């Protein structure tokens, strides 16, 4: 048998590779790594293992195959891996190691590699290994003790241990580093993303401020969280449509028009439409007290708008368009853009009437004292009001019409509403009504709820506009930066840098905990460069960029990564490798804190590693290896910051 194998290796390398690729049990990812064949204990199967290295000849050709595989990010290895439905060998290099472990166990467990792959977990105790599986979950007959004796380490899995009923596996870190960093070098800003949602689409309804009213804390949270939900879907291969559903309709706009005639200024309107319209709205509201004629005029004006009066609509349209233009400028500052600016005004009466007719025909809606309602008390959802006595529709009615129009236009696989938990009843009623209407896709509708923000106001305690918040954070960041005059003087564009760090401070403070939790807007803590803050993350990214600029070396994708043997280097590579997992997890949880927690851990490991593993002043080969590792960390951190909606800073 040895003679036959030697003959294959020496004279028919291509045939061996083809055999391995098409083998019924192609565990042979090991082929390209160690290049040594070993006959398995089962008939007709060939495995690669380094055990017989000293008994083989002519291995130089196989070493060449190793080099080719790594230069191709392990893509040749992928051809030899077991086909596992949930494994993404192309985009998640840890899945290569999981696939091999799953295949190893399936040889003895009587279960498919697919089944075992799902049972593998990241070890909670890194001292024991990187992957673990609870043997009782395999539901084996008999006592599964001493299973470790059945499994042989290979070039991918260097250690296999058993602790009670848990099997633990340790990766080959040199091999992981080679495959992973080559992959990141190819993907760069696309590292971490996958195509699991390819062919699917979703709509995200978020931000949704009211024209002529302050942009309050709830709108800011909706903007930040909704943008994340959009980004994380794109990162998982979905087509995502970001929709800003403005509060732009109702009697208040009749009141606003009356107020503008009395208190408005074209000059101020063009300068800052949102703030000026709010000032007008406050003044006209104040004049209503003791003057019922004003309220009546507002109703009459809005009735003209509803009836399609072009003069009335022209003024409203002007308010709306100027406000959207201003919002777009502010959103751009936040690194956020919407695909669609919609609003209550854009929903057709036909859509609402169609929905109401269905509800009546199915005896879901009923009249009560002249109004139209849906009694949802048996679902513990109270009574939903759809139409007032005078025929006026309500927010819920418009939402029903809106979602029907959206499905007709986008045929989405999911639709998300990023709105505070205070609106939970509203969305439960909306989704239940869709179900009762017989809408087959009602379960594609999700409410992304979140808690309240306490203490978010300007230092003067005045009404909060988004621009006020951003200006305040920029000024506060300037104050922090000026505390170190030397560094401050070296910043190329301090105003831009202060703005980006300030925005990062706000957004990371918002996304650091579970969405549903309330939190206090802390002006002092969020600007700290220490602890888990936005400025800390930006500093970590800028520090890694500085190493690349100042080390005097080019990024070398062929660096000798076998030199990265220190524990901190291994920890860093392992953490970088987990990023694709985190992106998938974030899509499942729709929690921004999933990403924030990960990058905080990444930055902590980077900080520890930088204390001892220098690039500058180190022998060239080792310096190149470390530089490539730090570069990969920087790419990963930058990609994650962008996923959260932040602009990574290269200098600060």
Automatic annotation (TrEMBL):
Keyword tags: Aminoacyl-tRNA synthetase, ATP-binding, Ligase, Nucleotide-binding, Protein biosynthesis
EC number: 6.1.1.19
Catalytic activity line of the entry: tRNA(Arg) + L-arginine + ATP = L-arginyl-tRNA(Arg) + AMP + diphosphate
Keyword match ATP-binding: yes
Coiled-coil regions listed: none
Domain DALR anticodon binding: 537-652
Gene Ontology CC, one term: mitochondrion
Protein name: arginine--tRNA ligase
């Amino acid at each position: 048998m040895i003679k036959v194998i030697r003959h294959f290796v020496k004279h028919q390398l291509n045939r061996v590779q083809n055999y391995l690729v098409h083998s019924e049990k192609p565990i042979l990812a090991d082929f390209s790594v160690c290049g040594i064949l070993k006959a398995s204990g089962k008939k007709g199967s060939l495995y690669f293992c380094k055990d017989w290295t000293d008994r083989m000849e002519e291995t130089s050709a196989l070493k060449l195959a190793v080099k080719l595989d790594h230069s191709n990010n392990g893509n040749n290895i992928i051809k030899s891996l077991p086909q596992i439905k949930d494994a993404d060998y192309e985009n998640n290099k840890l899945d290569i190691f999981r696939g091999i472990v799953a295949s190893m166990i399936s040889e003895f467990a009587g279960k498919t590699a697919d089944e075992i792959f799902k049972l593998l977990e990241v070890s909670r105790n890194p001292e024991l290994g990187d992957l673990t599986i609870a043997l009782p979950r395999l539901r084996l007959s008999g006592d599964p003790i001493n299973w470790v004796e059945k499994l042989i380490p290979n070039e991918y899995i260097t250690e296999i241990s058993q602790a009670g009923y848990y099997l633990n596996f340790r990766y080959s870190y040199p091999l992981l580093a080679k495959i992973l960093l080559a992959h990141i070098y190819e993907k760069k800003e696309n590292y971490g993303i996958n195509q699991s949602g390819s062919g699917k689409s979703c709509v995200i309804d978020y931000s949704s401020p009211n024209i002529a009213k302050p942009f309050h804390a709830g709108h800011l949270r909706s903007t930040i969280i909704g943008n994340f939900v959009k980004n994380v879907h794109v990162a998982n291969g979905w087509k995502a449509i970001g929709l800003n559903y403005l509060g732009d309709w109702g009697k208040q706009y009749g009141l606003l028009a009356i107020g503008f005639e009395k208190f408005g200024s074209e000059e101020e309107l063009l300068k800052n439409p949102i703030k000026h319209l709010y000032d007008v709205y406050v003044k006209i509201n104040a004049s209503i007290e003791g003057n019922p004629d004003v309220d009546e005029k507002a109703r009459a004006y809005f009735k003209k708008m509803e009836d399609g009066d072009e003069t009335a609509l022209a003024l409203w349209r002007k308010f709306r368009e100027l406000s959207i233009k201003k919002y777009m400028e502010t959103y751009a500052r936040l690194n956020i853009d919407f695909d669609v600016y919609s609003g209550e005004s854009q929903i057709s009466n036909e859509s609402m009437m169609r929905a109401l007719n269905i509800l009546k025909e199915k005896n879901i809606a009923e009249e009560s004292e002249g109004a139209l309602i849906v009694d949802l008390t048996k679902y513990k959802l109270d009574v939903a009001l759809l139409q007032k006595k005078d025929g006026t529709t309500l927010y819920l009615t418009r939402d029903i019409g809106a979602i029907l129009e959206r499905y007709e236009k986008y045929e989405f696989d999911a639709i998300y509403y990023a709105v505070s938990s205070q609106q939970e009843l509203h969305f439960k009623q909306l989704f239940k009504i869709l179900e009762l209407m017989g809408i087959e896709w009602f379960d594609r509708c999700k409410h992304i709820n979140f808690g309240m923000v306490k203490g978010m106001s300007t230092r003067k305690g005045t009404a909060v506009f988004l621009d006020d918040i951003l200006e305040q954070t920029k000024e506060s960041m300037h104050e922090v930066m000026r505390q170190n005059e030397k560094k401050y003087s070296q910043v190329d564009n301090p105003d831009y840098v202060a703005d980006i760090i300030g925005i990062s401070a706000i957004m990371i403070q918002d996304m650091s905990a579970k969405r549903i939790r309330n939190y206090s807007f802390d002006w002092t803590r969020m600007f700290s460069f220490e602890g888990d803050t936005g400025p800390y993350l930006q500093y970590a990214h800028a520090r890694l960029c500085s190493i690349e600029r100042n080390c005097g070396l080019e990024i070398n994708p062929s660096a000798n990564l076998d030199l990265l043997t220190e524990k901190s280097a291994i920890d860093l590579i392992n953490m970088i490798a987990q990023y694709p997992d985190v992106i998938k997890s974030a899509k499942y949880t729709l929690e921004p804190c999933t990403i924030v927690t990960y990058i905080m851990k990444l930055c902590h490991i980077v900080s520890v590693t930088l204390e001892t593993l220098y690039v500058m002043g180190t022998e060239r080969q080792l310096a190149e290896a470390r530089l490539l590792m730090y570069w990969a960390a920087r790419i990963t951190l930058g990609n994650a910051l962008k996923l959260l909606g932040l602009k990574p800073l290269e200098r600060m």
